[in-house]
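Appendix B, record 7
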Amino acid sequence: MRIGTDTSKFPGAAENGAAWTLREIAALGLEGAFFRSPYELSPTLDPGEMRDAVALGHDLGLYVEVGTAKVNPFAAPEAPRVRDLGDGDYLRGLERLIRACAGAGVTELWTATANYQFRLPGLRACDRFRDDVAWAGQLAATAKVLDRLAPLLRDLGVHLNLETHEEITSFEAVRLVEDAGPDAFGITFDTANVFVRAEDPVAAAARVGPYVRQSHVRDVAPMFTDDGVGRFLAPCGQGVIDWPALLAHLPAEATLSIEGIVGGRAEMPLFLHDPLWQEGHPDLTVAELAEVLRLTRGYEDRAAAGEAPGLAALRAPCGPGDSLAFITQSAAHLRAVLSTRSADLEVTV
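Structure tokens (predicted):
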């Protein structure tokens, strides 16, 4: 497994461009870069600029992965640039993004279903709980988009990998990929987002493992709050995830892109006591909810003993130094886990 980072959370990336970012990532000893959008490789989607950026990454020994856009048509109004690219047709714009990435030699592409509106309070900050369109309707519309994109993906020989984003469960992501076809679609496994849907990250890894082609890795620091449970982000190894157990479920060729923090630790509530929240999770099992609560109690005990940041510290603003430390500390822990696992395998053999 190769360890890289998400450039959208890499300090200085937005200001300095792709070439600078790739060189900085390589200088840190990381092995890959995930760009959230092809516009990060070229603001005009210039084929030559995109190819040059990808070639530079490869010359530096890095894997290069790129995102496209959301595949839930109800999220389309929040991405006017994609619609503009398609001359008024969002789907055509998405297809052009996919072609641009494939033309640059990138075959593993990220996508997701919806958004989280941090500016809004309460349950409806998550698009899963929108009033204007039910989540089941959003999933059905997403499935139709995937079916429309499948022939293009197969023709280009690329995979569009659906993230376990904060609004979708791993159960739903697996069903979408299985129905649309794993020959054209895969999963980008976000290790911290599944916790927002009250899933045990290790159990979720086992579910999505057969379809994982990319991953966004970060740890979870959960605390009990007035809303129920608050999920905060922590560097890998400093939260509650059992990394050896989780990584054991992922394919050996999986890329581990550390998704860091910007400005804060991205608190997202689990409204466990809200009937609407409960009804909105038909796949949730008692066993996984119990594990989420056990992990939260365990983290709270560590925080109370001064062994981990407490609620006030988790809610405090973060600066660029914190963002970079998040990435380097995560990389160090993941390397240690992978090194130990390799040594164990050698002893077994």
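Remarks on this record: The chain has one domain: 2-220+233-266+317-348. The CA atoms of residues 261 and 323 lie 5 Å apart.
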